[in-house]
């Protein structure tokens, strides 16, 4: 039998950790002196401790390790636990690989342009209620379509937030887009004209987004930049949902920004 201090030196596990393992029941001392309270460990417990350390190195939680050590399991149950851990690690690798790709993309941008581009950000977009009208046209026609939207909305604009554009490729005209121009609603409104309709945009679990300052009379490249980034990083654009553009006014006035949102799926 070894005192806890001797067991700590032999196993190279700290006294604090051994006491914690005792507290949660994952590795209790073989004996405790009733008079002194000293903990004693048996030599065979080094094998158990090495198993604990091995499982920790494989990424198992202490709760999972306790289950592996103390519950009678069939071979099938053990295989199931390890396969689940395998799937978790594969998912983590995918996330880290995507992060590594973004780092490489940033490095390439710095090398080519001498500055850091704005970051592409993944986000979940909640469902949004919008008031809008549909049209078909080109990017160059957006200012005219926004004027038409303002005319349709009239005094009801007080119940509306930022302008939003939804777009996808036209099936009839390769040079045009199917567009939906509208406002995000902050409250329910009565429609000022039957040219507008209210609908709920669905939640999107995975949007690639890019924010860019909008220059007056200069077409924004944010959509093209984001689409190229998605292609380079081997993500897939969801075909059944349109891309979105949210137009945001700086809180200090003046500058206008556009946030392009493209729904994507993992490679």
TrEMBL record:
Q: Which domain of life is it from?
A: Bacteria
State a single Gene Ontology molecular function: DNA binding
Which InterPro entries does the entry mention?
AraC_E-bd, DNA-bd_dom_put_sf, MerR-type_HTH_dom, MerR_fam, Reg_factor_effector_dom_sf
Question: Where, if anywhere, are coiled coils annotated?
Answer: 75-113
CDD domains cross-referenced by the UniProt entry: HTH_BmrR (cd01107)
Q: Name the Pfam families for this protein.
A: MerR_1
The UniProt record lists the HTH merR-type domain at 1-71
Q: Which UniProt keywords apply?
A: Coiled coil, DNA-binding
Q: What is this protein called?
A: Transcriptional regulator
Question: Could you read off the lineage of the organism from its UniProt record?
Answer: Bacteria, Bacillati, Bacillota, Bacilli, Bacillales
């Amino acid at each position: 039998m070894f005192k806890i201090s001797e067991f700590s030196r032999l196993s190279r596990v700290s006294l604090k950790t051994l006491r914690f393992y005792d507290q949660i029941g994952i590795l209790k001392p073989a004996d405790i002196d009733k008079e002194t309270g000293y903990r004693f460990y048996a030599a065979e417990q080094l094998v158990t401790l090495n198993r604990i350390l091995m499982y920790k190195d494989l990424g198992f939680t202490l709760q999972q390790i306790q289950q592996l050590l103390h519950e009678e399991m069939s071979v099938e149950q053990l295989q199931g636990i390890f396969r689940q851990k395998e799937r978790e690690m594969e998912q983590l690798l995918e996330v880290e690989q995507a992060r590594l790709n973004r780092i490489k993309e940033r490095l390439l941008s710095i090398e080519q342009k001498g500055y850091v581009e704005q970051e592409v950000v993944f986000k979940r977009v909640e469902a949004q209620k919008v008031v809008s009208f549909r049209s078909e046209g080109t990017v160059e026609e957006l200012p005219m379509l926004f004027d038409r939207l303002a005319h349709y909305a009239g005094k009801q604009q007080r119940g509306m937030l930022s302008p939003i554009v939804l777009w996808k490729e036209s099936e009839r005209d390769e040079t045009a887009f199917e567009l939906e121009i509208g406002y995000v609603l902050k409250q329910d409104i009565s429609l000022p004209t039957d040219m507008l309709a209210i609908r709920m945009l669905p939640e999107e679990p995975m949007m690639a987004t890019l924010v860019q300052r909008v220059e007056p009379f200069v077409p924004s490249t944010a959509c093209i930049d984001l689409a190229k980034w998605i292609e380079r990083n081997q993500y897939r654009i969801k075909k059944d949902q349109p891309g979105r553009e949210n137009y945001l006014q700086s809180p200090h006035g003046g500058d206008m920004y556009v946030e392009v949102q493209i729904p994507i799926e993992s490679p």
